[in-house]
Amino acid sequence: MRINIAYFGNLLNQKEIVFQQPVRIYPSAREVLFLDGIDLRDTIHSYILLLEIEDFIVVLRKSTANLTDVLQHNFDLVSHGDLLSTFNDDEVEFQKLALRNMTVSDKAIRTRSFEAVDLKGMVSVHSAGKSIPYFLRVRQGNTLRTITTTTGRIVESAERKGIDAIAIWAKQQVDNLIARRGRKDFLDAFASPVDLKDVLASTKPNAILIEVSSLLERIEQDDPFLYIRRHHRLQKLSLNRKNILLRAMERVLEIDAQGKILGDFRNSKIKTNKKTITFSVRLLKKIIIKENGNEVILQNYLIKHGLYSVTFNNPKYIYFRGSCFEDKSGKSEIDQLMTMLIPKNELIRVTSEKGTVTAASTSFDLTSIFNVVEELHNTDDYILCDDLGDEWADHICFNIASSSICFIHSKHGDESTSASKLHDVVGQGLKNLGNMFFSRKYFTDKKRRMLTQKYNSSRIVRLRKGLPASLNSDVDRILTP
Fold first, then answer.
1. Would you state the pLDDT for residue 13?
2. Hey, is 180 helix, strand or coil?
3. DSSP string of 427-438?
4. Count H helices, E strands: the chain?
5. Which of 69, 227, 334, 405 has the fewest beta carbons closer than 10 A?
6. Which of 305, 255, 310 is nearest to 277 (CA)?
7. 57 - beta bridge partners?
8. pLDDT (tens digit, 9 = 90+) per residue, 171-210?
9. Confidence at residue 12, expressed as pLDDT on a 0 to 100 scale
10. How many Å separate Cα 390 from the centre of its chain?
11. Is residue 37 very low, low, confident or very high in pLDDT (cuts 50, 70, 90)?
């Protein structure tokens, strides 16, 4: 059925949306599993709606069989990079991020998940190029959206809408995909997708790992049992046999130069083409799993959902959830480091770290870094000089309005591109990193010692700005969540 929606004009630049709208709504019955020996079915209503807009097919469905294999066979799925190009990093708040590390080692953390009001600036980009972002939740204005890059799925929180509003939304997503105008200052630090055919031209697969944890999460939501066919009937695997199978699947399996999978699974091999890597394991062809009440061979289920990872002789690459990714941590870390370095014109006049300090000094020399630091932070409520002795930093600054605490480390020397010079100041910061999470009592004891001493036998007071009497209560305000 073809529909011309002329009254969409006010929302979509006075243009009509022309789209195909095949839809099917039907009842489906699911087996009730918690009552043994009683044949009960849970009847629910399912639907599938297809919108054909320009060169895209938008699929909306509920409680239907997985269509990934059908779509992959007949269409090109929206790529990882295209999905992430539908928004600008600086226009959204990253509220949740799930990452898959580019490793299959059983000695490494494989997945990580972060959640905050906005993860930009909070998630370390150190070695981020070795991590693949496969799930994101972002807020753009009042719109909350989740993106699953491994399935090409976009979900947006909204009120229930009719077909007209759904078509508007789908057209907006298509327009974003076509425009590819998203800037990725944050996401560019992570692993990037590459063409599998280019990777296979230079290196070969060397290991495969089945994502058993992801498999268990999926089957627990549908049917937690595994089956085997005997005498034309399905029999449940006993818990013991199921655990033996899962433990065998959890192991990293090496791949030889001919594509043969070594280890517990006999007569097994991988299959490669320009777009995909799949596998053939005789044992997994005998195991049956149920998906939405339908019987599916376990091997086909794993391939359809991409529940496996393949590494290569070149460790820069990994095949994950149907796509190939490249570790780009080297260049991305340099770029991210450069964004952290903010030049300050006030440093042009600096000739020393703290200048000449005498018994009569009441402040630091105008040409010292210490003096420049105190100028740059003159809008903070408190400035403490903690240099020498049991120091946490050269200066500690408190700002009540922004609820922030700054630890400042100062170094002076000749201009240099030496990595060791950079490490001098970075190393000092790392050495004192643990002090950033101080307790109220720990700070109170430190403050008492600081306020009773002058700086290095001079007349320079340690509390460079702020009222001593209110320091404790103001620090409490900052530390209180």
1. 39
2. coil
3. HHHHHTGGGGG-
4. 13, 26
5. 334
6. 310
7. 52
8. 888 888 887 666 677 888 888 889 999 999 999 999 999 9
9. 36
10. 38
11. low
DSSP-H helix ranges across 31-187: 68-74, 80-84, 163-179
CA angle 178–183–184, rounded 5-degree value: 115
Q: Which two tokens stand for residue 204?
A: 């070969």
pLDDT of residue 332: 55
Helix spans in 341-439 (H): 369-376, 419-431
Among left, alpha and beta (phi > 0; psi -120 to 50; other), residue 135 is: beta
Sheet holding 294-297, edge to edge: 233-236, 227-230, 287-291, 294-297
Neighbours of 66 (CB within 10 A): 17
196-207 CB burial, b ≥16 within 10 A, e <16: beebbeeebbbb
Euclidean distance between CA atoms 449 and 377, whole angstroms:
23
Q: In angstroms, rounded to a whole number, what is the distance separating the alpha carbons of residues 19 and 40?
A: 40
- At 19 the pLDDT is 52
Token duo for residue 423: 């490490």
- The string of DSSP codes covering 234-278 is EEEPPHHHHHHHHHHHHS-EEB-TTSBBPSSSSS-EEEE-SS-EE
Q: What is the rounded distance in angstroms from the CA atom of residue 307 to the CA atom of residue 210?
A: 6
